[in-house]
Amino acid sequence: MNQKALNSLEYYKIIEQLVEKASSPMGKELCRNLLPSTDIYEIRHMQTQTKDALTRLFQKGNISFGSVKDIRGSLKRLEIGSSLGISELLSVAGLLENTNRVKAYSRNERGDSLPDSLDGMFSSLEPLTPLSSEIRRCILSQDEISDDASSGLMRVRRGMKIANDRIHTQLASLVNGSARNYLQDSVITMRNGRYCIPVKAEYKGQVPGMIHDQSSTGSTLFIEPMAIVKLNNDIRELELQEQKEIEAILADLSQKTAENLEAIRTDLEIMVQLDFIFARASLALDMNGSEPILNEEGRIRLKQARHPLIPKKKAVPIDVRLGDDFDLLVVTGPNTGGKTVSLKTVGLLTLMGQSGLHIPAFDRSELSIFHEVYADIGDEQSIEQSLSTFSSHMTNVVSFLKDADRNSLVLFDELGAGTDPTEGAALAISILSYLHEQGIRTMATTHYSELKVYALSTPGVENACCEFNVETLRPTYRLLIGVPGKSNAFAISSKLGLPDFIIEKAKEQISEQDESFEDVLTSLENSRVTIENERLEIERYKSEIEALKNRLESKQEKLDERKERIIRQANEEAHRILAETKEYADQTMKLFHKFQKDHVDTAAVEKERQALRARMNQTEKSMSMNTAAKKPKKELTAKDLSLGDTVKVLSMNLKGTVSSHPDSKGFLFVQMGIIRSKVHISDLELIDEPVINTPGLSRTGAGKIRMSKSSSVSTEINLLGKTVDEAIAELDKYLDDAYIAHLKSVRIVHGKGTGALRKGVHNYLKRQKHVDSFRLGEFGEGDAGVTIVEFKK
Fold first, then answer.
1. Which of 376, 360, 363 is CA-nearest to residue 408?
2. pTM greater than the 0.90 cutoff
């Protein structure tokens, strides 16, 4: 990418924000060097990494890589056999400890989640906990090695402590005893690493020893008494031994570190890369960004895109299309209306997307991969180079026309400005025509009406405008594609108080053709506003309808649940009664055999039979109490009933549908959900329902379309998860309801599976007289998992 476009579109301000998100020096360096790529596979990989890191941030929270220091120099020294110092070994330990923390972050956060693009990097991390623990055990801080680092060091330091104690004991006896009168102060001090006492100059002969220093005035001499010279020498020797022990410890730790050199180098590289990736994810989190869909066809479709450098609360989202139906977009409108911001938004989001960064736009926004982005934005006049505004723009245009091709995106701000309007407009049209003919994706802002006409009259070129509210004299910053904009200079001037006679005089200077064109734009704008208001009203109606639909569905679900509960309770009651009956029968047979075996007289048998009969009569009485208590409001005859009528079976307290005509004895079949029962006509009560009379059909019998059927019967039945018997029972009731409701066709969802359910459904459909035809679903209808049924007319 050319540096001019990166600077004009303020790409480096985004990079500065990215650098702040990284926590390690090496990670910040990677962020600072990030440039847009042109390899779509590399970009998609980076976008996927950013998305996966963002998912982890949502799930687990932020993570810091702050302890990742640049230890590449230390690793190089280990490679050639050198030993590391204390600070270098502590840096290695810090890296390994941070690696362990990052690996734990990954383990805790993943759970049962699906693998992502970062799993390989996390799994490749080797914390080397024994090594980092050993370094921390031996090295307490930048200036201190632990006494336990080695047995030799512990022995040396124990000797040093003993020698120090002996020196302090002897010096204390001198200071507090025989030499007290010769001392300037009763203190013990050190000079050149040896213990001394401050002796007055006039008494130097009274304290035998070595003079190491004197005060600035010469009145005090710092003398090492002869009694402790050997002890001081012993301490110096022990200090040299201590230094050798420390060097041996550091060499041993360096050797252990060198044995894991490749693992540490890999940890460093992965940690830096993860810091870089999570910095991109953190930036996306701040911007509320999303992953763009990438293509190489030059197609841009941004949905609710915001300029990332404008605060989210102030930025007005825009929708932008380019490269689909048109490859040239001409944006017009008043000054400060948002034209330049729209231009910069498209350019900057393109650069961000090609850098692996998420963009502040809605999901499913599309960006194309461009090999170059050319941007001529702002006033670049130069006194030093004798360049006017027009000259600087033309210099840029010349370089663009020389290098741009079909893989380029070209952005012009106020193309042709800075010179005579007529010539400037002609030049702008000529430049845009050339780019359009070459198929180069181009977006340009302008005030020239000639460019609006050019966009209206040229295929593959589209107008757009930044909306402006003349009443409030404020731009709305909305980008409207397909509508040319007005400069609104007269309206703005009038609102600001410019006298009407001056405005009228100005209007006289405009040609009739230009005035007519402006009138057309005004008419288009008024029509657009009207259509927009109507669209909003339609959306509101759709929302209300959707809410009503949801309420109806909820109500229907409750009714279905109630119906299923009633049927379930009826089935349970029937099973209970059947079980009791079987129990009575078993008892009867047992008693019969008992009496037969024991030769009991018939009087005893008769007595037991009467007792059983009484119990059965009691059960029958409890079963028929409700039926006896409830009599139909009107006794029905065969003429009162028709197929499809809704009736109530009083003995079962259930609603059902008449599915056969009464026989000579008054018995008929009634379908009650999945139960199809034979009942007597005297046990039925006809339920009146609202009906809709369909033109062309009779107003009685099967010609009625009942409101309850037509409003509640769905055009689809779902049989997934059911056995063939269960499915056929439910399908039988459903097809009856659908046929009575005069549905033309229905959709049966049975799934693919083993094919047993589909085969059972098809065998059942072949036997139904009211089914005209049936077929498997086509592509888009559910394929072989769905059967479409057509009813006879």
1. 376
2. no
